[in-house]
């Protein structure tokens, strides 16, 4: 390990750029830690306490930018320095790409772009409701990516949209596919006859990619925002979404994806299901079958089941796929475990993917701890260590405060993966990798060094650590599912083929490892 | 250069009117003559050093009012070709920036005046101060960014963790020192935070800014803190960045960004907690952790006010 420093005299970066340089420097191959800071006495004092203060850093002034790299022994420090210089020299992009037109207000954009009918809004939560209202008042549908919008504002916006016959997708809506265009986080899928309305981002991505993999296609994917089916919001957007797809001639089957709604809202939504006049597949994660069936809906027990039913109802012929024998595969894993290895740890980017796997393990009657557990007795904070079977959603607010979402920057869970490998009670680590628009350009490539490190730690301790991965994406995404899967398999990772299959495999490993 | 935003003037010179600005700054610029320099350039702000080496800012429209700041009718400075180190000529009523192939003259005539209105919290009872501080703290923890006074981000490396530990220690020392009124202890506490944190306005400075603003309000019980802070800044200007130094000096005079003053005004008017949500989020929107760190200092200041008033 060696310390390398770059000092840029009288160089000022705004805090967001500074964080970006720091994040990119941390991602360079061969860098263990990177740190950027102004050269104040106190910051130099901190570096001194950590034994990282070089002569060059000591000479930095408070107007100078310090970049400190702690590099691995094998690293080529000259090359690293050149890469850091390159990061610093890259100019911040101008406000608009060459030739693009920048509008200063939503009203200006609405006027200036003939036929514009949708605004995607991603601003600080403090301003989000105001901008969304302006868009609606200008006759635009809204996809509101921002979170931290009050529930009162959400209700008011959705009521306004409803009255105007517009969509109000969000707040906190990260996924939509409208007229074959994926917005924010979405995958490249075939156009088709399955319409989705979803209060869950990665849940809807998973259903859309499964539909695609089964030979079907997507007509529209309408996001509602995670709070839409709460008592307070009352499912306004989900209801409007169902009605819109019911009236859409290109949609033959509707799929609903959400966590279980509030009881009164479930009634309202199921009334819409009954009135839709088209087959509706209902996947309420962890929900019950009875009410859905009574309303004439098609109950789906998981995301794969939802996609399979939708494709079948749409009349798409699917080639039979070999069923995954989770029990046998788990039995094979357990034979390789050392004494005391009994728990499964899930490290997820996608909340719904985490949920689906967690519910599968819970369904086996096992105790599960998580940062998204409803039961406070089994809830973990981001700072807490794992306990028993633990499933963490790294995209939850607890982990993303002050950081990009792990689908954009997968690095926060890498340290956790290595930490789990050190725990002699861990039998398997389950991870997801989300591909598509908006996601990291190579999530598997970024994670492979940590996977290898985790495997090495377990191996040296005389243990086999089973690493299970699911890659959410399609053959049309860049990079493709096949390329990311191949890289994982080459590293000795077991790759599952769907979120549902991941849950089954995790459940069987958890059950058998605990029994053993 | 964006042609619709500048009015062609003399050959090789574009003219851009300043729309509004800090009244005290505008007053002083009307009599400032000499040569300054571009200090730093960002997309929304260009910082200049006046002939007297005083840092001032040119902000884009919508950036909000702040001390030592002028607002021009532009949306982004990126395309103007302004570079750090370029000369700036200050004449009565205008300032002219030397660009690579032309000049940009900013005219001050007709600029609207922004006069920061410093409220007083002297009429609030200790219990009211405590309730306000607790509410602000709750909002900060719910919506503020980690990485500064709120602690390290999950999975932070040893360097960020060490800064977070030092910040926490600095805060503890500060809140213990101020009530004693002992200048030596307060001075040590200020020095333990000044310049601490990676950003352009380090987190420790932002914390001190929030606390100084409360202490500088009329009738504050923290009066002992302000002169010590001013002394430290005068004695150790190199301990932090120029921008942070300017912000701290203004805060010590009760002058701060409009969002912070608006928030204090609402507290003075005994606004209902819900009315604070939007103003707090505006404060939190500053920088990466700056808003949150400043709010932490402001909250600490309110707690100290409560403690000191209660002990009267």
UniProtKB/TrEMBL annotation, chain A:
Domain CoA-binding: 191-286
Superkingdom as given in the UniProt entry: Bacteria
Biological process, per Gene Ontology: tricarboxylic acid cycle
Pfam families noted in UniProt: CoA_binding (PF02629), Ligase_CoA (PF00549)
SUPFAM superfamilies found in the cross-reference section: Succinyl-CoA synthetase domains
UniProt GO MF annotations: succinate-CoA ligase (ADP-forming) activity; succinate-CoA ligase (GDP-forming) activity
One cellular component term from this protein's GO annotations in UniProt: succinate-CoA ligase complex (ADP-forming)
Membrane-crossing segments per the record: none
Domain ATP-citrate synthase/succinyl-CoA ligase C-terminal: 347-506
PANTHER family per the UniProt record, alphabetical: PROTEIN FDRA, SUCCINYL-COA LIGASE SUBUNIT ALPHA
NCBIfam families reported for this sequence: PRK06091.1
Name of the protein in its database record: Succinyl-CoA synthetase, alpha subunit
Automatic annotation (TrEMBL), chain B:
InterPro entries to which the protein is assigned, alphabetical: AllH-like
UniProt name for this protein: DUF2877 domain-containing protein
Organism: Streptomyces indicus
